[in-house]
Write a structure and sequence with these properties.
By secondary structure, this protein is α/β, with parallel strands linked by helices. It has a single domain (8-200, 211-247), classed as 3-Layer(aba) Sandwich (Rossmann fold). Helix content is 49%, strand content 14%. The protein has ten helices and seven strands. Strands 3-2-1-4-5-6-7 form a seven-stranded parallel sheet, with helices on both faces. It is globular, with a radius of gyration of 18 Å. The structure holds NADPH dihydro-nicotinamide-adenine-dinucleotide phosphate (NDP). NADPH dihydro-nicotinamide-adenine-dinucleotide phosphate (NDP) binds at residues 12-13, 15-19, 37-39, 42, 62-65, 90-94, 113, 117, 140, 142, 185, 187-188, 190-193.
């Protein structure tokens, strides 16, 4: 028996990238999936692929930053699939902009999607989870929440806000049998990364990662699947970097990179 048999997961931003891979992974582990994305065609494509692997799925078009749409999303998920056991707050946006040039609109857009979106979805899902005394909330934060990001002030602040919300939910929802955790990816090879930075910038960043490469979507999906499992029940309020060792290395990796360059490639 797959470990998520009989469970229902709601995954936001699941039309492409990390969210789509998470949705497919949770389905392979046995869960039925409510797929939601701001792009309806992509959501439908992911839902079709989940049906193909033998699980129930619905596709829904929701902007997670819109409170009323989120209420409708969770109501539809419960009405169609019966309940929500697992919520993955994955929907996100990113745009690099130097701090002095950051506009009010860009700042507000980041807080809206990441912080308000995570709050709206988590509260609505937790209300359903609390009826059965069981739930798993997993948020996708970022290493930008744990280290000072360059040109990503709004994004880093919003992702740090998500981490704060995770800790608060871990505390307040424990009595309801609900855990809340976050995965904090380093740079992962997706469209979001490619649209935020020129190719030479994100390829150069791999040199500052101890693993010496960008991450791949499956590596995030496996971490999320662990937090989604019944076996993770004694873990709550953690922010898990999945980053090839970047947070652990901090500024030392910059020094190692400099030395490697000076030594013509040898460490
Ligand atoms: P993608 O852009 O590939 O996927 C994100 C999905 O979320 C897109 O389909 C996007 O639609 C959708 N989305 C955007 N805004 C909303 C909204 N308001 N409501 C619902 N859906 C929305 O990004 P990734 O897969 O790379 O990122 C997934 C998550 O991982 C994000 O939270 C991101 O911040 C986080 N992350 C990613 C990293 C990376 O290097 N890739 C690193 C650290 C964290 P559309 O494209 O139409 O906007």
């Amino acid at each position: 028996m797959a470990q998520l048999d009989g469970q229902v997961a709601l995954v936001t931003g699941a039309g492409r990238g990390i969210g789509r891979t998470i949705a497919l992974q949770l389905a392979r582990e046995g869960a039925d999936i409510a797929v939601t994305d701001i792009n309806e065609d992509w959501a439908q494509e992911t839902a079709r692929d989940i049906t193909d692997i033998g699980r129930k799925s619905i596709a829904n078009c929701t902007d997670v930053g819109d409170y009323d749409q989120v209420q409708a999303l969770t109501a539809q998920s419960v009405a169609t699939l019966g309940k929500i056991d697992i919520l993955v707050n994955n929907a996100g946006i990113s745009k690099a902009r130097p701090f002095l040039e950051l506009t009010k609109e860009e700042w507000e857009a980041q807080l809206r999607v990441h912080m308000s979106g995570t709050f709206y979805c988590s509260q609505a899902a937790a209300r359903d989870m609390s009826r059965r005394g069981y739930g798993r909330i997993i948020c996708i934060s970022s290493v930008a929440a744990l280290m000072g990001p360059i040109d990503l002030a709004a994004y880093g602040a919003a992702k740090a806000g998500v981490a704060g919300l995770v800790r608060a939910m871990a505390l307040e929802l424990a009595d309801h049998g609900i855990t809340a955790n976050a995965v904090a990816p380093g740079p992962i090879d997706t469209e979001l990364l490619r649209s935020a930075w020129p190719k030479e910038v994100y390829e150069e960043r791999a040199n500052h990662i101890p693993a010496q490469r960008l991450g791949i979507v499956d590596e995030i999906a496996h971490a999320v699947a662990f937090f989604a499992s019944p076996e993770s029940g004694y873990i709550s309020g953690t922010i898990l970097p999945v980053d090839g060792g970047s947070v652990a290395a901090g500024a030392y990796m910059v020094e190692k990179y400099r030395r490697r360059k000076a030594n013509g490639g040898a460490s």
